[in-house]
Amino acid sequence: MQPSPHTISLLLADARLPSGGHAQSSGVEPALLAGMPVADVPAFLRARARTTGMVDAGTAVLARHAALDCITMAPIERAWAARTPSRAIREASKDLGRGLLRLSGRIWPEVRSSLDDLHESPPRPLVLGAIAAHAGIDAESLVRLTVYDDMACAVAALLKLEPGDPAHGVAMVLEACSSIEPQVAAVSSITSAHQIPAASAPQSEAWSEAHALTTRRLFRA
């Protein structure tokens, strides 16, 4: 029996999913190492959700659309890369995409065929979109899943970097995810590359680039 798309969404949002998320901090470690106060993490997460999160969510929605209609993915990846200027962030996304693709190969082997036109490891949002298409996850759920996964990864890393009350971390995730609700309907309706949000976060991107050069870190990005 085919699992419910809702169950699959829960599976993909689970921090215990063996896709490599445990090695990422969603930009939190770079920000803290650069001197951002821990008290500013909630604001950082809200900003990331509305910038990097929306770019990834829009890309995932378009990748889902492409997989359903058997459209080539290469232009979508180029549009995502143009909106993700930091090489460090792009490489982190490809690490996560590689982990998701390896996992999907065991559960949804057909996902790989949707990404065959991509020569390198596809980034996380393209793989998420392809999985959503094959697993029956609707576009609005995919937007929320894409942002939630990034926020949850950030808070899980924060609790290792700056141990605190896990309940406070849950509240931060919910607050950041709630901040993008007004955009969910519009982003879930994307059908062409030029509609993908292009919000940027230059300071966070600079922190990620500096972080990639240091050896004193717990997380890859």
TrEMBL record:
UniProt xrefs under InterPro entries: UreF (IPR002639), UreF_sf (IPR038277)
Coiled coil: none
Record key words, sorted: Chaperone, Nickel insertion
Cross-referenced Pfam families: UreF (PF01730)
One annotated GO molecular function: nickel cation binding
Keyword NAD part of the UniProt annotation: no
Domain of life: Bacteria
Name of the protein in question: Urease accessory protein
Source organism of the structure: Agromyces albus
